[in-house]
Amino acid sequence: MIRVSELCVNYGAIRALQDVSFEATPGKITAVLGANGAGKTTLLRAISGLVTPQSGTISLADQPLVRVATENIARMGVAHVPEGRGVIEELTVEENLRLGALASKVNISEGIEAQYAQFPVLGDRRRKYCGTLSGGERQMLAMARALIARPKVLLLDEPSLGLAPQVTAELMKTILAACEAENLTVILVEQNAKGALRISHDAVVLHLGRVVANGSAAQVAADEDLRRYYLGLVEE
Amino acid sequence: MSSFLTSSFMSNIFGGLAQGVIYSLVALSLVIIWQSTHVLNFAQGAMAMFATYVGMTQIDRGLNYWWCVIISVLVGMAFGGITERVLIRPLYGKPEINPIVVMVGFLGVIEAATTAIWTSTSRNIAAPFSQIYFKADGKLVLLSPFIIFQIILAVVIMMLVAALFRFTRLGLQLRASALAPEVARLLGVRVSRMLTIGWMLSAGVGSIAAVILASGSFGLFPTNMDGVFVAGFIAAAVGGLDSPVGAIAGGLIIGLTEQFVLAYWSPSVAPLGGMIVLVAVLMVRPHGLFTRSVSRRV
Question: I need a labelling partner for B221 at 20 to 30 A (CA). Which of A26, A115, B228, B263 fits?
Answer without folding.
Answer: B263
